[in-house]
UniProtKB/TrEMBL annotation:
This is GMP synthase [glutamine-hydrolyzing]. It is an enzyme of class 6 (ligase). It catalyses: XMP + L-glutamine + ATP + H2O = GMP + L-glutamate + AMP + diphosphate + 2 H(+). It comes from Herbiconiux oxytropis. It comes from the Bacteria.
Amino acid sequence: MLVVDFGAQYAQLIARRVREASVYSEIVPHSISAAEIAAKNPVGIVLSGGPSSVYEEGAPALDPGILELGVPVMGICYGFQVMAKALGGEVAKTGAREYGSTDVAIDASGSSLLGEQPTAQTVWMSHGDSVVQAPDGFDVLASTSSTPVAAFSNTDRGLYGVQWHPEVKHSPYGQDLLENFLHRAAGIPADWNPGNVIADQVAAIRAQVGSGKVICGLSGGVDSAVAAALVHEAVGDQLVCIFVDHGLLREGERRQVEEDYVASTGVRLVTVDAREQFLGALAGVSDPEQKRKIIGREFIRTFEQAQADLIAEAAADGDPIRYLVQGTLYPDVVESGGGSGTANIKSHHNVGGLPEDLQFELVEPLRALFKDEVRAIGRELGLPEVIVGRQPFPGPGLGIRIVGEVTFERLELLRHADAIVRAELTAAGLDAEIWQCPVVLLADVRSVGVQGDGRTYGHPIVLRPVSSEDAMTADWTRLPYDVLARISNRITNEVTGVNRVVLDVTSKPPGTIEWE
Ligand code: XMP
């Protein structure tokens, strides 16, 4: 299934929803030609929404030949309007904008797309222009009080369109609509799942690597853990993993990698204990950007040294290491341009930035996958839940969760408070609701408190629980008061030096998720 990207953030969401319907999807730019699409031999095409108006100068266009390929196509929002205009329908600025939840009336009995959906439903809209006249040969399937043509279809030609956004959760019947298009209208089977991804990737890795040696840096996070496990499944002990303990990890993380992960995968692991080196390099530094730079620099240094040692060892055996595993995900590929012509939003660098003259060939078994799919594959491979279900944790670790200078004592204090927060949130069954919950030590702030018999002058701990889909935007999670009370009691009683717990109630934007 191909998703044609007309800009904004919609295409990735559509691609994810299509995969949730067990159909493999890829994103392509709107500049793609009909011949290029035909060469990919898709089973269906979705045209995404986008921020433009079809009448704007330079508005993203579509090769009209794409609608003549005989492949089923569904247009969504802007994609719906592009389709209407290309086929001779009429799109106009009616002055009636619809943003947010909108009531729509469905009149589509017998339609495979909408025929079995409620005739009155609420959907998510975001448009200024409207289709006022469907192209010849099309049935109008839905309307709103201000949009006469809110959905249409031409079943004979396999062409469908909706003005609303079925891919967002605010359209309650949206996923059902997408699945109707995929499975019923286009007849695509629901047969894509983690099991066959593993089999495909194992075969692809074996074909790429042969009998060559492979190296991989583990961060403790889910992406590198799953990437390495897949490679290990494919080539066994031809793979060696390096794990750098920089001392900025959370409680238990090193053990999770060294014991739980190794026990469940059998990978060969080399741990580098660089805790003193990092603390030394961070001494006296409070500026967040400087801390990040130092941590990044030390990380690369340490990793390269460990790598050089392994390379020397392998070369002595007459069998050099030629491959490097990277846990690059599909959103990174899309946002970096992906070779498919999609806009270059940002360039991603894994493992702290790769040198220009990389001496390795990259092995990237997760390049086609979204995060939730990587987790599903990790579970299928039997990885421990503490790693597969782990919430995002920044590369610079606790180093950017101490506002002020990073010292060993402060790290110990923060590790303790963070462990309490994680344990209580998990015990309260809140993990699924929370994207991540940074716990921050305001080491440069002190306030007066009274603990036991005496006056204290301690540091505050900040709780930053956020809910998010992709970390680009976020809202603060409304945690139950009794859970907050338990966390606050435990931290102020059990963590020496902390006499106050505060809750961050800022969305992103304007606040970022991390404090530094
Ligand atoms: P912000 O704070 O920018 O964070 O809202 C967005 C997401 O990125 C994570 N983050 C980082 N991850 N290296 C990383 O690997 C970093 O330097 C870094 N800074 C922020 C953050 O935890 C959140 O998930």
